[in-house]
Specification:
The protein has no helices and 24 strands. By secondary structure, it is mostly beta strands. A hairpin with a 5-residue loop joins strand 17 and strand 18. It is globular and about 65 Å long. It starts with about 50 loop residues before the first strand and ends in a 6-residue tail after the last strand.
Length: about 350
């Protein structure tokens, strides 16, 4: 089984000391014969299997090289689409190189983009000069000549206070024949502030128990929590709508094959007799948190509706994976403070 990532080799440099004939021998330090210098490989700033933005990575089959650039802050125009109001905007360019001797249809990299220690979803936008990922699975896709390159520029946005936060890109490249079998993780700081060094999430798991955990507590294995369960208002049908956040952390030390996407589904119950609330489909992240980089987290928002006139102030959230219950949380619906 192959581990994803670079193998970093340290370089040992031998120093040779020479002197003039007849000169006294160089002074030897006591114990130098028994304590040779030890060469250390450079310390990785990211877990094994992750790569810095700006690094190039080859697919397992050797057909393509992917290289996403570092993020560069931009000033959006009035033509920008998909950019939330007040968020900071940046651009990133993918350089895709065809490493075969044949014309290739463009590789589709469509990444999942998260920011910060909690791994909240970043926004992806288009603008003048920021065309986004082209449709490579079409009747007339972009093509790349042997040894040629193709560049794709995408827009990424985060909230105004997230400058300096790490941005993590996860991509599972696909071709017209399906997945390549690769999953790549890239990370780099969002521009506009000094990079925040200590960004890894280090949750303190709650003791194992058969009872539901409180909102905000962390399940030990797999590591996850439910928090920020808040009212959102009233839907068009007059029913109260509520959102919550499910955060899942990958506690693996390295990104290893085979990769396993972390798929979670939530069910929400209310009242003493645990009636099931209506989960509103289409909200981001309800059923699939996707691939999560090692030592990183992913936060997804789920949304549900209660019956008209429901008096409940608390709910119970059950998290399942492929039908098997993994954790249960309960707590109050907390009004927003701002």
């Amino acid at each position: 089984m192959r581990k994803a990532g670079w193998i970093v080799l340290g370089t040992v440099v031998a120093g040779l000391v020479t002197g003039c004939a007849g000169a006294p021998p160089a002074k030897q330090h006591r114990g130098s014969e028994s304590k040779p210098k030890v060469s250390h490989a450079p310390k990785r700033e990211l877990p094994e299997g992750m790569h810095k933005l700006g690094e190039g990575v080859g697919t397992e089959a050797g057909s393509w090289e992917l290289k996403p650039s570092a993020l560069t802050e931009v000033r959006p125009t009035a033509r920008a689409k998909g950019l939330p109001r007040g968020w900071r905007a940046a651009r990133l360019t993918w350089t895709l190189t065809n490493r075969t001797g044949e014309i290739q249809q463009l590789l589709d990299v469509s990444p999942t983009v998260r920011y910060g220690a909690m791994g909240r979803p970043a926004a992806v936008f288009t603008d003048t000069g920021i065309e986004g990922i082209p449709d490579s699975i079409s009747d007339d896709p972009p093509r790349v000549k042997p040894g040629g390159t193709y560049t794709v520029t995408t827009g990424i946005a985060v909230p105004a206070d997230a400058a300096g936060d790490p941005v993590t890109l996860t991509t599972r490249p696909t071709t017209m024949f399906g997945d390549t079998g690769d999953v790549f993780f890239f990370e780099g700081p969002f521009p506009g502030a000094a990079a925040r060094k200590d960004i890894a999430l280090h949750p303190s798991p709650a003791p194992e128990t058969l009872k539901p955990l409180a909102f905000g507590q962390w399940k030990t294995d797999p590591q996850m929590t439910v928090a920020n369960v808040r009212p959102e208002g009233t839907g068009t049908d007059g029913r109260p709508t509520i959102t919550g956040e499910l955060t899942v952390r990958n506690d693996a030390a390295v990104a290893d094959l085979p990769y396993t996407p972390m798929k979670k589904t939530v069910r929400v119950y209310y009242g003493d007799d645990l009636k099931e609330a209506d989960l509103i489909q289409g909200a981001p992240g309800i059923a699939n948190t996707g691939f999560i980089a090692p030592q990183r987290a992913a936060t997804h928002t789920f949304q549900f509706a209660l019956p008209k006139g429901a008096k409940t102030t608390s709910v119970t959230v059950e998290v399942t994976d492929l039908g098997s219950t993994e954790a249960t949380f309960e707590g109050k619906i907390t009004p927003r403070t701002s």
